[in-house]
Design goal:
With about 150 residues, the chain is mainly beta. Helices cover about 10% and strands about 30% of the residues. The longest helix is centred in the N-terminal third of the chain and has 18 residues.
Length: about 150
């Protein structure tokens, strides 16, 4: 009889623990935005990003070397995954689309056409191959009127 009471007490304790769920506080999404520009001896680096707090993120980062080579990466992340467009004039780079990342190269030895995403949401990334070879990208805050896309 005592064994039956002990087993019943253990069973009650185990079942009570299995149904306990602590309350987790729910917070509203917090949008964010940041940017920076760091000038060094060898290169200038910048990063800008904006998020809506629900997992949708837009941003870009840049690096410009003293020799004039540069790389600008624009990216978005959200329900459709991560998408990136890399614009560069670094020697040895080609126009390509590995793993849905668009590489647009204006290097003198770049091969291949500039490739864009197949979906309609990314058609804004199409580019003219005859763009200026010495184009310089400047990072500005997302609130600056110059940051708006045409």
């Amino acid at each position: 009889m005592q064994l039956l009471i002990i087993l019943a007490a253990i069973l009650a304790t185990v079942s009570a623990q299995a149904t306990y769920r602590p309350q987790v506080p729910q917070y509203a999404p917090i949008p964010y935005s940041f940017n920076y520009l760091a000038e060094g001896d060898e290169a200038t680096n910048g990063h800008q990003e904006t998020g809506d707090g629900n997992g949708n993120v837009q941003g870009s980062y840049t690096i410009t070397h003293q020799d004039g080579t540069s790389r600008v990466v624009e990216y978005t992340a959200g329900p459709d995954g991560f998408k990136a467009v890399v614009r560069t004039n670094e020697p040895g780079t080609d126009n390509s689309n590995p793993a849905d990342v668009v590489f647009e190269s204006t290097a003198p030895d770049a091969r291949g056409p500039i490739i864009t995403y197949g979906n309609t949401a990314s058609q804004r990334y199409t580019t003219n191959r005859n763009q200026p070879q010495n184009m310089r990208y400047v990072l500005v805050p997302s609130t600056d009127p110059r940051a708006r896309r045409q």
